[in-house]
């Protein structure tokens, strides 16, 4: 009760502080003082404090199961474990927006503290632009999605959190992803501020690089966590479905990756300024666009919390205000200077990064079209189409092989002017990759030519980066680790897609199902009681070709609040292969529907994303970029 | 100058996007199939089960006859259960059964029909489940009764049973 009041009024005070911050910084902007006045910092800190208080009081309401709060009532239940009561705070529309607001205010404060050496006017402008975003979100929360709505009479029991969201990974997936998204808002504000101050320079590049890296790391890990969750919880047995919701998180990742590379050129050579600014704007716009698409109900997904159209309209208008604002600032301040007409030597790191940009832009446009076109078509012609994996595979795969080969060459290039060294060893590596690939996949009944080209390209990158790792010692380690991670990711994904197998069948207790020398034996079922669900556990024994027996215990959970049945897959993970079994009840029948999959190299997909992020992390921790 | 032209086109394009999204919000895509009773039969074309040709819906549904559209799949267990009832119903001369094979593997589907018999006058393939959305189906199995004026008069969610058969018979009498 009290927590509810405190939370609400903290939010209101928080929005007031936004205006104070704006007023103080405008006043400070033209003062002769060389440093930002302490007032601005203090006000920004107060704003952060009030948002923290508001967020904590929402958590408290969830912990105490205070059902006089509408958000708690809608998304919690007394029997829920404490951990999920807490994670339920951001497992709903209102709470997740409050979390977004928390990260926004936290990041701008950290930015102010961390950017002491930067010019004052630039810092103040960044703060102002960021405050516009913050005020937008404050109003959004207070007007359309207040997390502290009061209910009377107070219900005795809540409606419960959607069981598929009751999961340890999903408890941390949103905060991590938000750190990535919101980090991109800082980059957005900073680059707009920098362009008006004509400060897009080497120094600025050095300073903003840390933010780009940090957002990129969080975004990568956030996407991976979502993917792991979908893999074991949704029971589809895949890790990427080209679902619109996944796509909207991948798009900012692509632009952020391109931006990361451009920043290096900016930092080193002081060029590609327009690229950097445009990519910064696009990254944040795409993040917001993602929020709009998944939250407004325009796309159907598990992330669709908002079913109130006024919310969709609010985000949409806010999104376009930001886009037009940034475009206005960009075109007003942007002057085409000579330095933008770069003249790079064709064989140099700069050129290769430009080529990389264009590849990224291509992948981005494919995904953007695949995601948005169905909406356009539906509105214009009322025709419903669904764009599935084949579309993306057909358009992306042919460009992947040249991309990978190009990358293998590019990582060895030097700045300004370079030549390809050790040609023979490269040729040998390439031939080895080709031969190895051929040996591996010649016995498989897949599209031979297509996969040979793709996999050997991935192998080629793998070997060249591996060699770099050994010969380079500690020089330029972040780059090599990240690219090595990427090659491993590609290899794992490719092998996973051609070597996976799947059995779907209906089976009853005590029955055996035989298929090519292997057998699935359904031993028994057992019933168990969890704290807020009952579960049926199936005991399966699977004998493979070599006579090896493994036991898998998939589960069907029947949650009490809300009444939902979920299937929990049982996955046996080893270094080389995942064995994945999920079962479903067949209504009114003694049969169970089971799906048994073997998925090679799943483990390596997650490991390689971690490696990729580690590359970024090393770069953040390292003081200077390579000489 | 060049910049202004760029800006102009960008603004036009973005405004277009804005309008599209705004419109898109109205017809929300959370696929809650509409309640489709008393609705006109959708016009569509679909691949035939036994050959590779596409058939237009006008060609299948003629006037002056009752039709039943049954959405089924070989992987759907309740479909297996309702199948004998459909077989029985197919003997009734005043109604024609149209099967809509939903998100299925064609070989499994053929096995299913060979094993349990074919009650359908015509089977259409709905490989991606989009046709079922047109009909306003929630899943499989689902059965629609269509009258002489090509209007969906009744919709049955889930497997049909004797009671439903009796209801259908009453209507088509």
Q: Give the averaged pLDDT of chain A, no decimals.
A: 86
CATH topology tier name of the largest domain in chain B: Glutaredoxin
Q: How many strands in all of chain B?
A: 8
Report the portion of residues of chain B in β strands.
Answer: 15-25%
For the largest beta-sheet of chain A, the strand count, sense and barrel status come to: 6 strands, antiparallel
What is the radius of gyration of chain A?
Answer: 26 Å
Largest interface: A-B, 37 and 26 residues
| General form of chain B | elongated
Global shape of chain A: flat
- Secondary structure class of chain B reads alpha+beta
Query: Tally the helices of chain A: what do you get?
Result: 17
Poorly predicted ranges of chain B (pLDDT <50, ≥5 residues)?
Answer: 29-35
Percent range for β-strand residues of chain A: 5-15%
Q: Alpha-carbon distance between the termini of chain B? A: 76 Å
The top level CATH class name of the largest domain in chain B: Alpha Beta
CATH superfamily of the largest domain in chain B: Glutaredoxin
CATH architecture of the largest domain in chain B: 3-Layer(aba) Sandwich
Rg from Cα of chain B: 21 Å
Tell me what the structure shows:
The complex is a heterodimer of chains A (627) and B (173). With 627 residues, chain A is an alpha+beta fold. Among the domains of chain A are: 1-166, no CATH class; 503-602, no CATH class. Helices cover 62% and strands 11% of the residues of chain A. Chain A has 17 helices and ten strands. Chain A has helices spanning 2-29, 38-63, 70-75, 82-87, 93-114, 120-144, 168-196, 202-233, 244-269, 273-295, 309-333, 349-381, 389-410, 423-441, 448-471, 477-499, 602-621; strands at 501-507, 512-515, 518-529, 533-543, 549-552, 555-559, 564-568, 570-573, 577-585, 592-600. In chain A, the strands form two sheets. In chain A, strands 2, 3, 4, 5, 6 and 7 form a six-stranded antiparallel sheet that branches. Chain A has a four-stranded antiparallel sheet with strand order 1-10-9-8. In chain A, strand 8 and strand 9 form a beta hairpin. In chain A, helix 16 packs antiparallel against helix 17. Chain A starts with a helix and ends in a 6-residue tail after the last helix. Chain B has 173 residues and is an alpha+beta fold. Chain B has two domains: 1-30; 33-172, Glutaredoxin. Helix content of chain B is 41%, strand content 24%. Chain B is built from six helices and eight strands; from the N terminus they run αβββαβαβαβαββα. Chain B has helices spanning 2-26, 57-60, 77-90, 106-116, 130-135, 162-172; strands at residues 39-40, 45-48, 54-56, 66-72, 95-102, 122-126, 142-146, 151-157. An eight-stranded mixed sheet of chain B has the order 1-8-7-4-5-6-2-3. The longest helix of chain B is centred in the first third of the chain and has 25 residues, at 2-26. The model of chain B is unreliable at 29-35 (pLDDT under 50). Classes of the chains: A alpha+beta (627), B alpha+beta (173).
């Amino acid at each position: 009760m009290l927590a509810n009041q405190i939370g609400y009024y903290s939010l209101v005070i928080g929005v007031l502080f936004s205006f104070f911050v704006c007023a103080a910084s405008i006043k400070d902007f033209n003062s002769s003082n060389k440093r930002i006045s302490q007032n601005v910092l203090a006000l920004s800190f107060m704003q952060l404090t009030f948002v923290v208080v508001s967020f904590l009081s929402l958590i408290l309401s969830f912990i105490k199961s205070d059902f006089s709060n509408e958000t708690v009532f809608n998304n919690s239940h007394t029997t829920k474990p404490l951990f999920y009561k807490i994670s339920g705070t951001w497992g709903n529309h209102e709470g997740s927006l409050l979390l977004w607001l928390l990260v926004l205010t936290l990041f701008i404060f950290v930015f102010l503290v961390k950017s002491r050496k930067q010019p004052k006017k630039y810092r103040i402008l960044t703060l102002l632009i960021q405050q516009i975003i913050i005020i937008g979100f404050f109003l959004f929360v207070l007007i359309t999605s207040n997390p502290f709505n009061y209910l009377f009479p107070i219900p005795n029991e809540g409606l419960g959190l959607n069981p598929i969201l009751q999961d340890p990974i999903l408890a941390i997936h949103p905060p991590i992803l938000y750190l990535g998204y919101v980090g991109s808002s800082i980059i957005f504000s900073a680059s707009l501020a920098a362009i008006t101050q004509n400060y897009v320079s080497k120094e600025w590049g050095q300073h903003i690089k840390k933010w780009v890296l940090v957002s990129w790391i969080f975004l990568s890990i956030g996407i991976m966590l979502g993917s792991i969750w979908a893999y074991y919880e949704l029971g589809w047995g895949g890790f990427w479905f080209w679902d619109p919701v996944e796509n909207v998180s991948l798009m900012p990742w692509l632009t952020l990756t391109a931006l990361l590379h451009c920043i290096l050129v900016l930092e080193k050579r002081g060029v590609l300024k327009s690229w950097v600014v445009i990519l910064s704007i696009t990254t944040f716009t795409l993040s917001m666009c993602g929020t709009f698409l998944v939250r407004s109900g325009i796309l159907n997904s598990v992330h669709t919390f908002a079913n109130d159209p006024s919310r969709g309209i609010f985000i949409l208008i806010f999104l376009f205000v930001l886009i037009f604002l940034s475009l206005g600032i960009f075109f007003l301040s942007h002057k085409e200077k000579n330095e933008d007409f770069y003249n790079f030597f064709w064989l140099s790191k700069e050129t290769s990064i430009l080529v990389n940009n264009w590849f990224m832009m291509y992948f981005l446009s494919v995904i953007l079209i695949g995601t948005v076109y169905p909406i356009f078509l539906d509105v214009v012609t009322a025709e419903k189409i669904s764009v599935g994996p084949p579309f993306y595979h057909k358009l992306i795969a042919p460009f992947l092989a040249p991309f990978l080969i190009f990358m293998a060459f590019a990582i060895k290039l030097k700045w300004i002017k370079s030549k390809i060294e050790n040609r023979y060893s490269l040729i040998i590596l390439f031939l080895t990759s080709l031969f190895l690939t051929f040996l591996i996949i010649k016995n498989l009944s897949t599209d031979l030519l297509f996969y040979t080209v793709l996999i050997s390209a991935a192998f080629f990158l793998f070997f060249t980066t591996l060699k770099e790792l050994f010969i380079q010692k500690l020089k330029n380690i972040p780059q090599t680790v990240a690219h090595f991670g990427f090659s491993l990711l590609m290899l794992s994904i490719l092998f996973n897609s051609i070597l996976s197998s799947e059995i779907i069948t209906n089976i009853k207790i005590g029955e055996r199902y035989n298929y090519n020398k292997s057998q699935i034996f359904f031993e028994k079922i057992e019933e168990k009681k969890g704290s807020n669900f009952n579960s049926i556990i199936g005991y399966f024994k699977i004998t493979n070709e070599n006579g090896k027996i493994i036991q898998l215990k998939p589960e069907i959970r029947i949650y009490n609040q809300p009444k939902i049945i979920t299937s929990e897959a049982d996955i046996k993970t080893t270094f080389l292969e995942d064995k994945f079994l999920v079962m479903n009840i067949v209504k009114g029948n003694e049969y169970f529907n089971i799906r048994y999959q073997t998925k090679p190299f799943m483990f390596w997909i997650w490991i390689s994303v971690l490696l990729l992020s580690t590359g970024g992390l090393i770069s953040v921790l390292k003081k200077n970029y390579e000489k | 100058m060049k910049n202004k032209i760029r800006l102009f086109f960008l603004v036009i394009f973005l405004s277009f996007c804005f309008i599209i999204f705004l419109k898109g919000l109205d017809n929300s895509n959370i696929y809650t199939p509409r309640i489709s009773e008393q609705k006109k039969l959708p016009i569509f074309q679909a691949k035939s089960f036994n050959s590779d040709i596409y058939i237009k819906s006008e060609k299948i549904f003629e006037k002056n006859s009752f039709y039943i559209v049954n959405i089924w799949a070989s992987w759907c267990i309740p479909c297996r259960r309702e199948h004998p009832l459909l077989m029985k119903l197919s003997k009734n001369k005043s109604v024609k059964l149209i099967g809509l094979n939903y998100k299925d593997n064609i070989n499994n589907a053929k096995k299913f029909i060979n094993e349990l018999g074919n009650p359908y006058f015509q089977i259409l393939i709905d490989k991606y489940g989009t046709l079922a959305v047109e009909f306003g189906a929630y899943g499989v199995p689902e059965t629609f009764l269509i009258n002489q004026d090509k209007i969906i008069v009744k919709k049955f969610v889930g497997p049909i049973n004797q009671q439903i058969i009796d209801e259908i018979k009453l209507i088509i009498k």
